[in-house]
Amino acid sequence: MSAKFDLNDDGVVVVIGSGAGGGTLSNELAQKGINVVCLEAGGRHLPQDYQNDEWGSFGQISWLDARTTSGDWRVAKDFSGLPAWIVKAVGGSTVHWAGASLRFQEHEFKTQTVYGNVHGANLLDWPIGLSELEPYYAKAESKMGVTRTNGIPGLPGNNNYKVFEAGAKKLGYKKVHTGNMAINSQPRDGRPGCQQVGFCFQGCKFGAKWSSAYTEIPQGEATGNLEVRENAHVLKIEHDKSGKVTGVLYADKDGNKHLQKARVVAVAGNSIESPRLLLNSTSSMFPDGLANSSGQVGRNYMRHMTASVYAVFDKPVKMWRGTTMAGIVQDEARHDPSRGFVGGFEFETLSLGLPFMAAFLNPGGWGREFTTALDSYENMAGMWLVGEDMPQETNRITLNHDVKDQYGLPAPNVHFDDHPNDIAMRNYAWKKGAEIYDAVGATRTFPTPPYPSTHNLGTNRMSAKARDGVVNKWGQTHDIPNLFVSDGSQFTTGAAENPTLTIVTLAIRQAEYIAKEMAARTI
Amino acid sequence: MKTITSSKGISRRELLKRCMVVGAGLAVGTGFVAGSTAAWAMETKHVAPREMATLIQMARDIYPHNHVADEYYAAAVKGFDSADSKDRIAAGVSALDAAAQGRGYSDYLSVPWELERVEILRSMEQSSFFQTMRGNLVTGLYNNKNVWPLFGYEGESYSKGGYIKRGFDDITWI
Prior knowledge:
The complex is a heterodimer. Chain A has twelve helices and 17 strands. Chain A is an alpha/beta fold. In chain A, the strands form four sheets. A six-stranded antiparallel sheet of chain A has the order 4-11-12-13-10-16, with helices on one face. Chain A has a five-stranded parallel sheet with strand order 5-2-1-9-17. In chain A, helix 1 (20-31) runs parallel beside helix 12 (500-519) and helix 6 packs across helix 11. The longest helix of chain A is centred in the C-terminal third of the chain and has 20 residues, at 500-519. Chain B is an alpha+beta fold. Chain B has helices at residues 12-18, 49-62, 70-77, 86-102, 114-123, 128-140, 148-151; strands at residues 2-3, 20-22, 26-29, 32-35, 40-43. In chain B, a hairpin with a 3-residue loop joins strand 2 (20-22) and strand 3. In chain B, helix 3 crosses helix 6. The N and C termini of chain B lie far apart (44 Å). The mean pLDDT of chain B is 93. The chains are: A alpha/beta, B alpha+beta. The interface between A and B is large, with 44 and 36 residues.
C-alpha cells in the first residue's frame, strides 16, 4: 500500500527520524507529491503495543544505545549512562511526550537583544521571529488538535490539577488552566477523546494524544509518496566532490549496511543523535564533520531549566489518575530580571507512578527520610518546572572514542554544566512551587532534581551568520544546501515553553521551502 | 504458607521445627530462609541461608516501610541467589558482619536496633556492594505489582477504560 523506493533512486528526500520533526516533514513533503524515504532507527510500536507499565514501557520504546555524560549536572552522577529519556520508535519522542503545546513568546526569539550579554552564555537571536511563524503555529495547532485553539475545549482537571489550581490561585497567580494540550478533549481527526488513562508517558493507548506515529506517518504513507523503513539506523551521510550530500548509509535490523541515495537529506534524530551523525560523517573534505565550519555542531546543548516539586498532604490526592500533565501556571514565564534571572519558566502538573517515583524522587536517596515520602504516595501532588536555560558553548555533544555503540561507532558524550542563571531560576521556581502547595495545606514538600532530559535542544542551532550556528532560518545547513536539520537541535535558544509545537511548526514551514527549492532546482 | 520459590511441599509446622530464628523476624534452615512464623519461605541454592537473611534485613534497612512485610523484601533480593553473585554476596555480608563485630555484636543480623544498623550502612554507603543492593531494590521492591496496593497505587488502567469514570477528579477536600 505505501511506497517502495529503490536504494539507487537519487530523486528522493531522505528524512532521518520520524518524530515531531521528521514525521511531520515526511508527511508534509509527501502531501506535496515529493518522494520521501524516512529512516527510523526504532520499530513500529503503536497504541495496541504500548504498555501501561512504567519500566516495561521504558524497556520497550526508550533510546538505550550507549551514551556517556560529563559536567556538573546531577544527571551525570545519578544516571551516568542515561543523559536523556527519548524514544526509539516510529513517532520518536511524540510517543512518550505529555502533549504540552505552547507557542514561544516574541522576546524569546530575540534573547541576545532582550536579555543582553549574560556572562558565559552563548545567547543569540534567532534569524526568524514570532510574526513569521504565526501562520505555521496556527497550522500546527490545527494539525495536532491543541486544546483552547480551533474551538477545541480544554481538558477537564484531574485531582492533581485541582490541588495545583487551588494553591496557585491562592498565591494570586492568574494564568492558571488545564493547558494547551495536543490531546483530544473530544473525538477529532478520527481519534477518540481522552479517557484519563494516566500513562501518557508510556504511549497513549487510546490515541487521544497526538503522536506522529499514528497521524503524520500513516497519512504520509497513504499518499503513496512516503516509504518508512523501520529498524533502519543511520550511520553516516555521504557527499560528493562538490560537497553536496548524495546519500545515507544505514544498518538494517540484521546489521546489514545499505546506502540509500538522496537528492536532499533532512536530519531529525533529536539533539544528541543529529549532531552525532554529522560529527560521525567526517571525510577529508569535512574533517570536523558535516556542516561544521562554525564548530557549533554539537554545541549549545540545552535541556531547559527543569526540576519538580512533589508535596504530601494529610488526605489522598491519587495524582496518578488521569493525564500526566494536567494543567499549567504561566505567570512566571515572563522575562523579569527583578526576580534574579533572565528568561522565565512554566509550572506544569506532573505525576509519576510508584515505580518511577522510587527512582526519581531523590535519586540515590535511601533510609526513612526517603521511605516516609513514598509511604505518603497516595497523598502526593506534583508539578514540573520547565524554563529557559542558557546556551553555553561548552555544553555539547562530542564523540566518545573510548565507548563504541553496537555498530562500532563512537558513542555520544553529553556534557552539561548549569549556568548561574539556571541555578537562580531553579531555586526560585522550587520555592514558588512549594509555596503553591503550602497554600493549600501541604505537610511536606520535596525539591526533586532534573530527570534525564526529555527536552534536548540547540545542538545544530539556527543563526543569521554562518559562523554563529549550523543552519539558516529554514533549517538548511549553512555549508551544504541540500542538507537540512528538522528537529529541536535547530533551536537557537530554548524559551520557557515545551518544544514539540515549535518543532512541528518549523517542519511545516521547512517542507514548503524544500518543495519550492526543489521545484526551482536549486537543490 | 506462601513460598517465594517452589519448595518440596513441606508443611508450615514441619518448617518451624527445622529452622532457627535470626535477626528481626527471620528464620533460616538448611537451604531456605523464612519468616519466623513460617508465613513465607524462600529456597536458597547458591547463597547461604544466613547470608540471604542478612540481605533481606539489609534491604529493609535501606528502604524501611513499616507496612511492607518481609516477604516483599525477600522477593526483591531473590535474584542475588545465583552462581554469579554468590562470591560478591559473601564478601558483602562479611563486611557487614565485620562492621557489626566492631560494635560488639556477633553479626549484622544480631544488631538489635535499626538505628545502629543504618549507621553501619551509612559507613559503607560508597561501597559497590551497598550501591548494587540499593540500585537493585529500586525496581526489585517498588516494581513488584504485589507491593503497589500497599501504597495505594492502582497500576494499569487502559483495560478498565482509564479513569474518566473511575475517579480521575474525585478529590473532595479541595
